[in-house]
């Protein structure tokens, strides 16, 4: 019996069982494969929603789970599924990196434009034209 909340679970879930006045707790173990799948789903969700700040923590968890899965018995069907999920996330990671690079280039060009621009004078010499600082303008 496995319990999942919202389709994603990282830790074994505990459920209470009542039997003739005795209460005991049953811990349902989740395999490393399932935990890794959950991490890959979280990573995908983070990439799709732009929550890039959560990716380092997920990467650390993913690395430790990959070691666990690699050291255990191999279930080829599960490994193929994990590889497919990881490959799909790789495409999203590359797209996110491209987006961050594009934003950085755009921000740099805006900063350069705010500082002024290069122009040529009547004899063809290049000179830098500074823009006035954006201060408060007072009118009388």
Brief characterization of the structure:
The protein has helices spanning 32-49, 55-71, 76-115; strands at 13-19, 22-28, 117-120, 126-129. With 140 residues, it is α+β, with helices and mostly antiparallel strands.
Structure report:
The protein has 140 residues and is α+β, with helices and mostly antiparallel strands. It is built from three helices and four strands; from the N terminus they run E-E-H-H-H-E-E. It has helices at residues 32-49, 55-71, 76-115, and strands at 13-19, 22-28, 117-120, 126-129. The protein has a two-stranded antiparallel sheet with strand order 1-2. The chain has a two-stranded antiparallel sheet with strand order 3-4. Helix 1 (32-49) packs antiparallel against helix 2 (55-71). It is elongated. The termini are far apart.
Features:
alpha+beta; elongated; 140 residues
Strand content: 15-25%
The separation of the N and C termini measures: 79 Å
In round numbers, the mean pLDDT is: 80
Tell me the structural class: alpha+beta
Please count the helical segments.
3
> Strands of the biggest beta sheet: in what spatial order?
1-2
Shape: elongated
How many distinct beta strands? 4
How helix-rich are the residues, as a percent range?
40-55%
Gyration radius from CA atoms, angstroms: 27 Å
The helix-strand sequence is EEHHHEE
């Amino acid at each position: 019996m496995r319990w999942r909340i919202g389709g994603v679970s990282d830790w074994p879930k505990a459920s209470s069982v009542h039997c003739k006045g005795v209460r005991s707790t049953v811990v349902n173990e989740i395999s490393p494969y399932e935990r890794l799948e959950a991490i890959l789903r979280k990573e995908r969700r983070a990439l799709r929603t732009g929550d890039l700040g959560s990716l380092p923590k997920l990467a650390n968890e993913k690395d430790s789970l990959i070691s666990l899965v690699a050291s255990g018995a191999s279930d080829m069907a599960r490994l193929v599924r994990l590889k497919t999920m990881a490959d799909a996330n790789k495409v999203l990671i590359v797209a996110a990196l491209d987006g961050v690079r594009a934003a950085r280039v755009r921000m740099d060009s805006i900063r350069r434009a705010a500082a002024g621009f290069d122009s040529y004078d009547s004899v063809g010499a290049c000179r830098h034209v500074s823009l006035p600082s954006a201060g408060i303008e007072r009118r009388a």
